[in-house]
Fold this protein.
Amino acid sequence: MGIAKIYSAPIRILKDVQILIVDNDSDSRYLYTLLLEDLGANVKATGSVGQALRFLDRFVPDILISEIKFRGESVAPLMQRLKDLAIANSSTIPIMVTSTCSKNSLDQYLKVGIEAYLIKPIDIDDFVFNIWNLVLLKKISHPYSIQEWRDTPKIIGKNYEELIE
């Protein structure tokens, strides 16, 4: 399945999902934002960890998508802050890492609770699929109320390709 198939119909599989993107590459931030907003997500994007931490004062994301390597900054405070926010809100905030470093370099970060990672350059289909899985993870971790469950289309358990056809 190609990205052209995704854009051939106006699907909103990420409707109302709050996503924070932290990437020091402006082209990546722009591409991710454009794609995710077209899929219905509410996206905030920033190029630094410090600015992302300031965003968290007024914006609690459902998902974080972050580069791992920043010149002069560590992502550890950002990840810790997200974990603290999740605990305070009795929810989960899945983290997806995108990076140019190898899988072996990412292993240390996987130990701190990263749910997904992709090595750059990123395949757009893999990107969307991983985000969709994180949305499902969040929904399964913190299920809907009875009313929300009754009023929501049943999508859990369906094949990804069925969702976009």
User: Anything to note?
Assistant: The CA atoms of residues 44 and 110 lie 24 Å apart. The two ends are 10 Å apart (CA to CA). Helices lie at 3-7, 26-38, 49-55, 76-88, 103-110, 124-141, 146-151, 160-164.
